[in-house]
Amino acid sequence: MYSFKLPDIGEGVTEGEIVKWHVAEGDAIRKDQDMVEVMTDKVTVKIPSPVDGKVTKIMYPEGKVVQVGSVLLQVDDGTGTEKIIEEKPEIKTEEKQPEIQPQAAPVVTTASPAVRRMARERGIDLASLHGTGPGGRITLEDLDMAREIPPSTAQKVPERIIEMTPGDQVIEMRGLRRIIFDKMTKSKQIMPHFTVMEQVDVSPLLGARENLKQYGLSVSFTPFFVKAAVAALKRHPYLNAVYNEENRNYTLRKEYNIGIAIDTPDGLTVAVVRDADRKSLVQISSEIQDLAERARKNELKLKEVQGSTFTVTNVGSIGGIMSTPIINYPEVAILGVHRIISSGEAKNMFLSLSCDHRLIDGAEAARFIKDIKDYVENPVVLLSQ
Description:
About 30% of the residues lie in helices and about 25% in strands. It has ten helices and 16 strands. The protein has helices spanning about 80-85, 115-120, 140-150, 150-155, 175-190, 205-215, 220-235, 280-295, 360-375, 380-385; strands spanning about 1-5, 15-20, 30, 35-40, 45-50, 55-60, 65, 70-75, 195-200, 240-245, 250, 260-265, 265-275, 310-315, 335-345, 345-355.
């Protein structure tokens, strides 16, 4: 009997959601056959079977979030039946024992030394908190929430009861939507955002694209903004940083790995153009096109969604003249690119830049987005970067 555990899919991944089972109990399964589809906060992967055999037990249903190391299923690989009993997870049944009074289980809290020290300094009882970190670990964010919302106040807030009417639909946070839900909530809760905006004349950019077409090169708008972002990040390194919640510090990154927000049928995905500073405009364009196509087919690999240091989100092809994008945590800034607005011969566009105000001041953000504007309005200079 072979017990298959959820593997460590990648750095920092501690859990995954079972999106889809490709086998059922009783099915014969071959080695390397797709067995289960698992989504983490990084990527969705199809995990193949490492053995031939027959599926005897599926431990969790679709939609369940499972910790790394948990047994997902068991396969009878012909090695014997005694081992099946030994490896079968213990199933606890509730037995009526009226004579025994239930006792409260001891409260076990997990937290890093830094969090424990901070809790002592603030006079917060860790046992009174519900940890939102991996495995229920208490984070600094939980401490902040405990300080900002006194229990007595929180208890006075009445819970709103939604009365369902015919035709109403409940949307469960599952799959990629759950990941987006968690990340956006965390970003907004932890990082105090502010947004600066700029209007850009994109006529020179349109001219540059037309010139490239004469040489058989078709380049969309996003690669230009990736190049502009990299050039500006080199002048403003504080925007090319990631936040470390555990230690409450920032790391200025030397790599320029630009995240590209991609609209997929399942929701928003951020794929990464790694080392964008070392690539030409055409290389970046080709790479973005490839990433976007595979993102929409759910075929991205883990490394292709990891390690971004700054994100560009282009919603111009869809609509909306302005937005205030939410930072792709743990990065500290994100650039929003919007629809071209035509007024006579003038072709303009609004850019927006959201930043973590704890690290980046408004003046620095304004200088950064002005640099972006200058590069976009002078594509010859941009292409020389």
